[in-house]
Amino acid sequence: MTQVLRLANGGLIDRTRMLRFRFDGRDFTGHSGDTLASALLANGVHLVGRSFKYHRPRGFVGIGQEDANALVRVATGDQVEPNLKAGEVVLRDGLEAFSINCRPSPRHDLRAVHQIAAPLLIAGFYYKTFMWPNWHLFEGAIRRAAGLGTAPEGRDLDRYVHAYADCDLLVVGAGPAGLTAALDGARTGARTILAEADFAIGGSALWRGGSDAAEAATAAEAELRALPNVTILSRTQVFGYYDHNALAAVEYLADHGARQRLWKLRAGRVILASGAIERPLVFAGNDRPGVMLASAAQALVGRFAVLPGRRAVIFTNNDSAYDAAAALAVAGAEVTLVDSRPASAASAPGVRILHDRVVSATKGVRHVRAAIVADRAGRISETLPCDLIGMSGGWSPIVHLFSQSGGKLRFCEEIQGFVPGEAVQPVTAVGGAAGALGTLAIEPLWEVPGRGKKFVDFANDVTAHDIAIAMRENYVSVEHLKRYTTLGMGVDQGKTSNVNGLAIAGALTGRAPGKVGTTKFRPPYSPIALGALAGPLVGPLFRPLRHLPAHDWHVARGALFEEHGGWWRPSAYPHVGETLEAAAAREARAARTGAALFDGSPLGKIEVSGPDAARFLDRVYVGTASTLRPGRARYGLMLNENGVVIDDGVFVRLADDRYLVHTTSGGADRIAAMLDEWLQCEWRDLDVVVMNVGSQWATLTVSGPSARDLLAALGTDIDLADFPHMRFREGRVAGLPARVLRASFTGEASYEISVAAGAASGLATAIAAKGAPFGLTPIGVEAIMILRIEKGYLAIGVDTDGTTLPDDLGMAGGVARKGSDFIGRRSLDRPDAVRPDRLQLVGLLTDGPRLAVGAHVLREGGVPGVSDGHVTSSVDSPALGRPIALALIRAGRARLGETVTLYDMGIRHRATIVEPVFFDREGQRLNDGHS
Amino acid sequence: MLSLTCPHCGPRDETEFSCGGESHIERPGVEASDETWADYLFVRDNPRGVTFERWHHRFGCGAWFNVARDTVSHEIKTVYPMGAPRPTTP
Ligand SMILES: [Zn+2]
Q1: Crossing angle for the helix pair A498-508 and A478-485, nearest 10 degrees?
Q2: Model confidence band, residue A819 (pLDDT cutoffs 50, 70, 90)
């Protein structure tokens, strides 16, 4: 097909560069400089889709981002992007696009039957019709019928990036006003960013004002590009305006590398030069393909050298469309201008002008073929055959960003539109965005008399009649009107429909448009791909996992990794053919019978130092830190101010003024931050420094009856004969400088050996080599869980929750012994904290199968009924040869020996409450020969 | 997104900070009544106008500092160090 509507001369297209593209399976050509919209129209394609609700044939209302109709799906390789406005798609060779919301094609759409059922689909239809018995019965069918393009199902293969910039001056929009503002600022040396949504710089100068305007824009662009303090971002849509002059923009990049770039901008001053959008007129049949904004027709001629119709009718209530009419006439069209006003000072050479007349209806099915002209009373005066109707109901300044910035809008009678009023941030509007639109001499004509469907919102198929229904049913507030009719809620977010809609609502209820007001403008100004917002932080970067310093060593040992508290840790090291559970049991047995190696590097390590370190930790721990002697270690609980246990661990006194605080593996960052907050904000008199040293050290724990012999075999200058449980030594192990702590999470004699993180793999290799005679077994987190449950060692956040107090764990001894205050202490005296029926940590023994974590203890045996607590940890114990569990049970410690009923997924279990220590209750095995 | 001026690092985006809530709350001792303690734990001002908060330059230098912020306009009235008295603002 040839470009039948392309003019022989003019326009800002490169006629030497022919681009081939496909639309709905048909081949077309266009030129460099075209958009998909201008290229389709050059080929005479007006009908590009079906409407949202009624499936009416639709063409282009506008040819830019204000268009509410011409939505397309663009395919690039395997990637599909739905719901793009054809006017925003830059034409490129090989482009393939499809219409949406029609099957099989916009010409033959099976759902066009909706037009016949149209009287049913009026405002409030869904609310009224499908409430009974349940909306969900109808939802699927309705959603399939109404709606837009299909969301792509596969992974988005495109790459998106983020960029940050700050500037003295941000100018939004590079039309004549924006170029002038940018030059004024840039010439004073202001660091200036000029953002323009279009791929071309110049705005309305690209199509209006003749060669003078175009030359001025070109000169301004050239001067700006030569200035070192100016950045011009084209194809960049500023879509959000936030506090403190923070703005967000998306830049569409060329077809290589990342596809879009999200800009987060901070501007000293913002100038909005975003222009204005022409409004449609609301008359019957105003949605037929071939009916478009007068400015769109003018831009097609001026910028793209496309004559969208040979017999054109321009329908206006203001002066601006006279230029459009003249431009069409000069380009060779036969033009009649229908002006609703009795007279006008404007002129349009070569155009037949009718005053005091309106277009009251249109004819045509897939394309407009006539305009019915009537007087203001609705009496038909003539029928004008035509293939194009250009309409102008006035202009709406693009005030979206100004409104988002918090600025107030006011209704300007002179232009019959909303303009920026008082600003609350450093922002000003200039040009069309400020309402500077030249002489419009507009006379309001919100709804043209006559019968038939008069569309206000093309995107959502909202008619003037729908607004009347809403008013009749008392949805008079503009926010209610929007929600009841969906006015302004479509893909264009009401860019062409808001003012018409609220003015019609106002006319029906005796309110001036300014009194009706607008709905709130919210970001984004135009649709943004979710991928652009996510940027590069997807996949593994969405939440990066921390790897152990000896990660490669674990991989080589066949570890099965899982995430534990943000760390990618070995769960177990299964042999070939071994299940995870069997491997964990084997590993746990090895720790009880020989020697086990556990990588405890995620263990939190925080150094607390300074003259007041002991006083500080006395206020932090439930227990006492100041009485600890250097080289010794003590177990402690940390609470929050509500008295709730938030962390536990062993702390070591390294020197009089220095402690090493161990936290839970997931808690190090949180606890270090908390300690620092107390020091900086509350106890500013204490001379203490908190340093999180966790990532400096790798900690490999050797545990089991042979652990001491293994350590000796590794070679150490630490005197193992004088190294009892809960002591700390510094020395050398396997030739490496090391810190060794005798503490245990397994119940076996354990040596937690910390070396520089970089030495972790070397130490692990040495331990494995020297450990072979002792049956050394690497063990994972699963085995550690078995071992610690057998000993009743609690895991914070597993065996405790956000209500657990120290006494609930049987650990209130430290409170009673301590005279001084500590974090959370006062909360332990609250009436609720001393209730006798609190949930307390106990053990459970069952003769049946292993209890499920989360199984509830039934108080009266009935379900539903009152829960008396729940299982928190549960394993099959290899050491005991039976299932064991820990549980939080109401008044549990007073109920030792009681048999209770538990309930899990419809099945009841019996279990006996016991002390929460199942193995080596006296702790003999920890002593390792020391008395 | 607010722009906050860390006393050490200068103006930075809000995303580098976390808000620690109302500042100038006095911590009662262990002898406090249940009511006093509950007030300290749970009851906060929620003014329309200037509020005094403490903020943490979490992804920066780590400093805590005070901010006087207008809850309506989000205007930052002043930034002042921890331990300094509540400023008298207009
Ligand atoms: Zn800082």
Answers
A1: 110
A2: confident
Level-2 CATH architecture, domain A158-279+394-440: 3-Layer(bba) Sandwich (3.50)
What domain range is B59 assigned to? 3-26+44-81
What is the domain count for chain B? 1
Measured CA to CA, the distance from residue A67 to residue A669 in angstroms comes to: 51
The CATH number of the structural domain formed by A307-392 is 3.50.50.60
b/e per residue A244-272 (b: at least 16 CB within 10 A) = bbbbbbbbbbeeeebbbbbbbbbbebbbb
Instruction: Please indicate, yes or no, if residue B65 is contained in any of the structural domains.
Output: yes
> What is the CATH topology of the domain spanning A607-693?
Alpha-Beta Plaits (3.30.70)
For domain A796-812+829-915, is the CATH number 2.40.30.110? yes
Query: For A246, which of B1, B58, B63 is closest by C-beta distance?
Result: B1
Structure tokens at A415: 């232009």
Residue A485 to residues A129, A459, A502, A652, Cα–Cα distance (Å): 14, 12, 12, 68
Q: Which of A125-129, A615-619, A733-737, A918-922 shows the lowest mean pLDDT across its residues?
A: A125-129
B74 inside domain: yes
Find, among A224, A225, A230, A226, the residue nearest to A167 by Cα: A230
The tens digit of pLDDT for each residue in A763-802 reads 999 999 999 999 999 999 999 999 999 999 999 999 999 9
A680 interaction partners in chain B (CB closer than 8 Å)? 63-64, 82
- A831/B2 Cβ within 8 A: no
Angle at A780 between CA A712 and CA A885, to 5 degrees: 110
Q: Which CATH class is domain A14-130?
A: alpha beta
Q: Is the pLDDT of residue A139 over 60?
A: no
Q: Are strands B18-22 and B50-56 parallel, antiparallel or unpaired?
A: antiparallel
**Domain holding B22: CATH number?**
3.30.2270.10
Q: Is residue B20 one of the residues assigned to a domain?
A: yes
Q: Collect all residues of chain A within an 8 Å Cβ-Cβ radius of residue B27.
A: 682
At residue A138, the pLDDT reads 56
- On the question of pLDDT at A118 being above 70, the answer is no
Output the pLDDT for position A161. 95
Domain A548-602+696-787 sits in CATH at 3.30.1360.120
User: For the segment B18-57, what is each residue's pLDDT rounded down to a tens digit?
Assistant: 999 999 999 999 999 999 999 999 999 999 999 999 999 9
Minimal Cα–Cα distance from A374 to chain B, Å?
52
Alpha carbon distance B63, B20 (integer Å): 12
Could you tell me the distance, in angstroms and rounded to a whole number, from the CA of residue B56 to the centre of ligand 1? 8
Q: Write out residues 153-172 of A within 8 Å (CB-CB) of B.
A: 164
Give the closest of B1, B37, B62 to A676, CB-based. Answer: B62
Burial A360-374 (b: 16+ CB within 10 A, else e): bbbebeebbebbbbb
Q: Confirm if A118 and A52 have CB atoms less than 8 A apart.
A: no
From CA A295, how far away is CA A264, in angstroms rounded? 32
Residues in contact with A545: Cβ distance below 8 Å, sequence separation at least 6, in sequence order:
A563, A566, A567, A568
Assembly ipTM: 0.98
Token pair listed for A715? 């070679």
